[in-house]
Each structure stands twice: as C-alpha cells, then as structure tokens.
Amino acid sequence: MSKPIKLIILGAISGFICMVLLVWLCSRSSAEKESYALIRLNNGQLIPNIGLGTWAMDDDQAREAVKEAVSVGYRHIDTAWRYGNEVGVGQALKELFESKQLTRDDIFITSKIWNTFHSRQLAVKGIEESLKNLGLDYLDLALIHWPTGFKAGTDDIYPRRDDGSIMPSDNDIVDTWRGMEDLYRNGLAKSIGVSNFNIRQLERIIRQASIKPSVNQFERHPFLIQQELVNYCQNHSIAVIAYSPLRQADPQLLENPVLKDIAQTHNKTVAQVALRWQIESGVIVIAKSSRKERLIENMDIFDYQLSDQEMKRISTLDQNKRLIDIPGIQSHSEYPFDN
Ligand SMILES: NC(=O)c1ccc[n+]([C@@H]2O[C@H](COP(=O)([O-])OP(=O)(O)OC[C@H]3O[C@@H](n4cnc5c(N)ncnc54)[C@H](OP(=O)(O)O)[C@@H]3O)[C@@H](O)[C@H]2O)c1
C-alpha cells in the first residue's frame, strides 16, 4: 500500500475514533446531569433533597407515577396511610425490585401514621399496617401525620360530632412519640419525625423524648414561608420537608410576576424556581405530579442557582397564606396553626 493511501486510512480511522469519543462524551454529560443531593439527618441517615409526593393519587395512579418517577431519577417517595395508595406504591416498588431496576437500599420511602393512631401502641400498629400495604420490612422515614389525635376505635377516618367538630383522642402527643421511638428501636423505621407540628409542640417532644425527631414536614411555598419554624427546626438539627411547594398548582403562584421574571432570567419555569428556592433554603422538597414531563421538569433544578437578590425577592412574596387544614380540628387542643 502506498504511503499517501496509508496516511488517508490512518486519518480516517483517527477521525472516526475522535467522533466516537465526542459522541460518547456528549451523551455522558447529558446522562450525568446534575442531580439531587443527599442530606444527612440528625441520626446519620441520608435523604434525597427532592421527592415525589403522592397525595390524591389512587393506587393505580401511584403505581404508575412511582415507576415513571424512578425511571427519570427520583429516589424518594412520600406516601401516607391516609392517602389510601400505599398498596399502589408497594406494587411499583415490587416491580422495580423484581426487574432489578432498584434495590431496597436505593430508594427512600416515607409514610405517616394517621390521626386515629395516636397512642404508643397505635402508632406502632399504624406503621405496621403501612408496611403491610407497601410490602416492605421497614420505612426510611415514619412521621406522625398531624399533632391532632382523633378518637380511635370507630371506623371513621374523621370521627365527628354532630356539629362537625372532630372527636379528639385523649392521648398526649408525647405518648404517640414514644410509639415512634419504639418503631425506631425495633427497626421498622430508619428515621422518625413529625408533620404539621408547630414550635411549641416540637419543644415538648424534644424536652421529653429520648429520640429527637429527625424531620418536620409542613406546608411551605413562597406564599407561606414559615421562616420562624424553618429557623427553629434548622437550629435544632431537625430537617424541614416542604409539602405543597407549588401550592397545588395555584395559578396565582404559577403566574406570579416576580417568580415569572426570575424564571425567565434562568430559562426555567416558575415551578422550577419555586422548587429550587426550597433547595437553596436548605429545605427538602416533595412535589406531586402524575405526568412524566412534569416529573422531569420538577427534577431539572440542579443545574442553576438563584442569586441572593432573587432569594430576597422571593421572600417578599410571603403572605402567610395557608392552603392545607382539616375542617373541624380548629378547636382541638393540639391545633397547630394558631399563629
Ligand atoms: N404532611 C402533610 O400533611 C401533607 C399535606 C399535603 C401534602 N403532603 C405531601 O406533599 C406532596 C406535595 O404536595 P401537594 O400534592 O399537596 O401539592 P404540590 O406538589 O404543590 O402540587 C401538586 C399539583 O401541581 C401540579 N404540578 C406538578 N408539577 C407541576 C409543574 N411543573 N407545573 C405545573 N403544575 C404542576 C400537579 O398536577 P399533575 O399531577 O397533573 O402534574 C398537582 O396538581 C403531596 O403529594 C404529599 O405527598 C403532605
């Protein structure tokens, strides 16, 4: 073979190799997009700082959403006994484990005891029911869903008097917390925490507990920032999980001019700004979606940062505007929202 032909062939081969390398590098950088971080809880356990919420999904919707979410990178799922979809979540997990797409260690699962399970024994029973529904041996995080215990032993999820008010449980939240500690000690939950607790209630638990809550999960979005509660939790090493971060797709939030302006600057959506703002506030966030494109959108928030000035602009949107409450619990002695 003559020298010029050899040179041409060599050139073609190295050109081809360079092209393959380039394609590989490009596909690598898009596949290895920046993703969520793991936050260390006060007991050493790790939790992904973004998760999928499942409120208002039925079993079928939850099964499909969990599979979709895992396929696009979610590793943290939030459910509850009350949501009535733990069986669907569990079916998805079973499929994912059996098809070897996940192992149990790869995914963080939270569930919560409902208000009719408020006592040391009932708290354990509640989580045992959740585990049975989910088909799991343990939860990564078990929460007391609300501080407001309801009368146990009726079949009602909301046992009410004739005037519509809720019939309270006569158990103290500290007694219920003891049940959470039992769950932690016997390995049914790797971490334990609370939800919808105010500072006064957290203080009582911390003072009397032998195990401190790892988490407080509560409503938080730019219209309800709850900075005092966030500061209290963060100063006491209690991780904050923000629920309803999109205010359940409230158009007033999704079309807010300040959020829209910030979103445009970064070529992101308002939802992505609202979620990123939580992450940059040191808060873990759970958003619900049943749509694949939104699951992807809500996860695509780790490749940019909000400036200090943008964070300050978002903090001016606070209106103390709460969305989530339970009708009939306002006269309960542990009603948490009397601020
Ligand atoms: N501890 C508690 O007491 C408590 C209370 C409430 C909620 N939670 C938990 O927190 C989770 C999240 O809160 P949430 O479900 O109340 O409300 P959310 O996540 O603020 O909003 C969910 C709504 O927003 C829509 N959505 C999702 N992504 C969107 C996007 N990128 N753009 C526009 N719309 C979008 C969803 O519709 P599609 O599904 O159609 O996308 C759904 O209607 C719950 O699912 C639950 O797990 C806990």
Short description:
GO terms for molecular function: oxidoreductase activity, acting on the CH-OH group of donors, NAD or NADP as acceptor. The chain is α/β, with parallel strands linked by helices.
Q: Mind explaining what this structure looks like?
A:
This protein has helices at 3-31, 59-71, 86-98, 120-134, 173-185, 199-208, 227-235, 251-254, 257-266, 270-280, 292-299, 308-315; strands spanning 38-40, 46-48, 50-53, 76-78, 108-113, 139-144, 189-195, 215-219, 239-243, 284-288. With 339 residues, the protein is of the alpha/beta class. The strands form 2 sheets. Strands 3-4-5-6-7-8-9-10 form an 8-stranded parallel beta barrel, surrounded by 5 helices. Strands 1-2 form a two-stranded antiparallel ribbon. The chain has one domain: Alpha-Beta Barrel (TIM Barrel). Helix 3 packs across helix 4, helix 4 packs across helix 5 (173-185) and helix 9 (257-266) packs across helix 10 (270-280). The structure holds NADP nicotinamide-adenine-dinucleotide phosphate (NAP). NADP nicotinamide-adenine-dinucleotide phosphate binds at residues 53-55, 78, 145, 195-196, 217, 243-249, 254, 271, 286-291, 294, 297-298, 324. The record marks 112 as: Lowers pKa of active site Tyr. GO terms for molecular function: oxidoreductase activity, acting on the CH-OH group of donors, NAD or NADP as acceptor. Substrate binds at residue 145. The active site is at residue 83.
